[in-house]
Amino acid sequence: MTNTLASALGNSSRRNITVLAADIAGFTALTQSDEDWAFARVTEVMEEVIAVLTAGQGHVVDRAGDGLLALFPGALQALAAALAVRDRVEVMTATDPAGRRISLRIGINVGEAIVNDDRVFGTVVNVAARLQSLAEPGGIVISGAAVEATRGTNSAALEDLGGLAVRGLGKPVRCFQVRRMRDVPPALHPALPDKPSIAILPFENLSADPDQSYFADGLVTDLIAGLACLPSIFVVPRSSSFRFRDRALPSSQITLELGVRYLLEGTVRRSGQRLRVTSELLEGESGTQLWSGRFDGSVDEVFDLQDKVTETVAAVIEPRLLFAEVERARRAPPDDLQAHDLFLQATGYFYAMGRQDVERAKELTDRALRLDPNNARCLALGARCRLHRKVQGWVPPTDPSIAEGARMGRRAALLAGMDPEVLWMAGIVVALADGDVRGGIAMIDRALAINPNSADALTYSGMARAYLGDADVALQHLARAQQLSPVDAQTYNKQTAAAWATFGVGRYEDCLTWTERALASKPDYAPPWRLRAACFGLLGHLEEGREAVLRLLALSPEETCASTLVYYTPSFPAPGAVSALVDGLGRAGLPVG
Q1: pLDDT in tens, 535-593
Q2: How far is the C-alpha of 110 from the C-alpha of 243, rounded, in Å?
Q3: φ, ψ (nearest 5 deg) of residue 494
Q4: Which of 229, 251, 252, 228 is nearest to 238 (CA)?
């Protein structure tokens, strides 16, 4: 047996080869419609294909009725021959009826195989056949190994398909679709969208193990999918951003070609059983880094790590892009501002949170709405400005602007569509300005259904539920928001919401702890002082209570127990909470009114 086998393989050699696999797309359907015609026409076309391949230095080693296998001296020759075959078949069949028009599918791969005369054995052949089966009618799919073999000499337009599963192989095969040049758009740079726009580039594999490239590609694919569901951001699809995998271009050139303002790039490194993923957000034109993050985990936790990176980056990117756009709008000429830029400038002023800042934000949103009355984001931000004036005690609780803000919030929600940013902003205004806490929560829940990783939506979900008296869920949502955005400039909002949640269920010592944390970063925020004074009054710490009342009145001079009762009765339905709040403030020395 051994001698027979040795004899059979006497002319065999193991060497690196380039394999082209081709077949007729839809061959069975062709034969069923008219078997005699199909046989004659397919034979004619395949003879022409073989002639073209042979002229291109190909050697056909296997042929079936509707397919063949050919070897080439290199990947460049195989690709050139495949393109020539595609063009030739299109010309031959151009006048055939559409239902009988023959198209080829072609796959090309490079690798090591056993070659014995006109027979070839090895995985490289199976992969070529698999790639051919993945190609569209008239299409060519080429492996990553073949692309590497043609680097620097291949001018074909390639679309990265990522890693595709091949039966019998334990890992995906990187592959590319060879596009027709007529299908490639002209080199006109796309215009920038009127909202934050980003491309996520392939993450670089820094590991010694090349298999980690597939983890990196999968991670980027998930990031793109996560961001693409956010209507407030324009995200370039993977097929476009992956074209820049091996192109050493400056960020300014990449953003210009893709028509975006921002880039996210990163690396994946494996060392033993540890994985490290880094990422950074860049402003493309200048290359300025706006944010960076690092994530560590073990190989055993690879899927958990992938989810963590995806959800954290997705949660961080949206607000970072928004504030990058705010800074850009601030540099715009004042006479050249349209509704979107006015909204961006208003956002910057609003988050400064000073009294004059919020008034300026209100003026800018009003100006934007005169230009675009149905701008949902301007409506929602204008509504928040009006609510914040109430929250800080800058207007009395019966001021008409508060009801106006509630109406703006409801209109914003109607126009929001699938924009989670508008929905959570409208929801908190409806809950606190209109007193419809459950209705506001329903809007915020819609925002979370669209983007479960929105730290802002989770924060205001926690706040609204705190007013409702649902402390457990409120604190869960606030903890999740803090996990997603631990260095948020608005962290005091989460802490204040936690203070409301604990106050509403009578946990006054816990409430004091949360107010202390909130005031450490935002000492001019009235609600924590309001809660702090009430807690001290209820706990009998009257000296500390009087000090808190003085701090509250410095921010909200007209505040009284009577105004507090009017303010909170509609929006704080947690059982007994309003009476406890007013009682505690009265004991601490707030004027009765």
Answers
A1: 999 999 999 999 999 999 999 999 999 999 999 999 999 999 999 999 999 999 999 98
A2: 21
A3: -65, -45
A4: 228
Each domain of the chain, given as residue ranges in start order, spans 15-183, 197-326
Q: Which fold has domain 197-326?
A: Rossmann fold (3.40.50)
- Token pair, residue 79, equals 């690709």
User: CB atoms < 10 A from the CB of 513, how many?
Assistant: 16
Compute, in degrees rounded to 10, the torsion defined by CA atoms 560, 565, 566, 571: 130
- E strands along 449-493, which residues? none
- pTM exceeds 0.70: no
- Give the whole-angstrom CA distance, residue 488 versus residue 494: 10
Task: Name the β-bridge partners of 276.
Answer: 269, 296
The answer for residues whose C-beta is within 8 angstroms of residue 472's C-beta and 6 or more apart is none
Radius of gyration of the chain (CA): 33
Q: Are strands 119-121 and 104-116 parallel, antiparallel or unpaired?
A: antiparallel
Q: What residues does 106 pair with on adjacent strands?
A: 22, 140
d(CA 219, CA 426): 33
Nearest to 22 by CA among 137, 164, 119: 137
d(CA 589, CA 591): 6
The set of residues, in sequence order, having a beta carbon less than 8 Å from that of 575 and lying 6+ positions away, is 469
Cα separation, 21 vs 143, in Å, equals 12
- Asked if 236 contacts 300 with a C-beta cutoff of 8 angstroms, the reply is no
Maximum C-alpha span of the chain: 109
Are 307 and 215 in contact by the 8 Å Cβ rule? The answer is no
Asked whether residue 507 carries a pLDDT value surpassing 50, the answer given is yes
Q: Which residue in 457, 232, 447 sits closest to 344, CA to CA?
A: 232
Give the pLDDT confidence of 127-183 residue by residue, as tens digits: 898 888 888 888 899 988 888 887 655 556 777 777 776 666 667 788 888 876 555
CATH architecture under which domain 15-183 falls? 2-Layer Sandwich (3.30)
380: nearest Cα among 230, 232, 568: 232
- State how far the Cα of 547 lies from the Cα of 130, in Å rounded to an integer: 77
Cα–Cα nearest to 191, from 259, 255, 241: 259
Least confident of 153-157, 289-293, 451-455, 480-484: 153-157
DSSP β-bridge partners for residue 163 = 174
d(CA 197, CA 260): 5
As a three-state string, the secondary structure of 232-279 is CCEECCHHHHHHHCCCCCCHHHHHHHHCCCEEEEEEEEEECCEEEEEE
Residues 6+ apart with CB under 8 A from 182: none
Does residue 342 sit in helix, strand or coil?
helix
Give 145-151's long-range contacts (Cβ < 8 A, gap of 24+).
Answer: 145/109, 145/110, 145/111, 145/174, 146/18, 146/75, 146/78, 146/79, 146/108, 146/109, 146/110, 147/75, 147/176, 148/110, 149/18, 149/74, 149/75, 149/76, 149/110, 150/75, 150/76, 150/79, 151/246
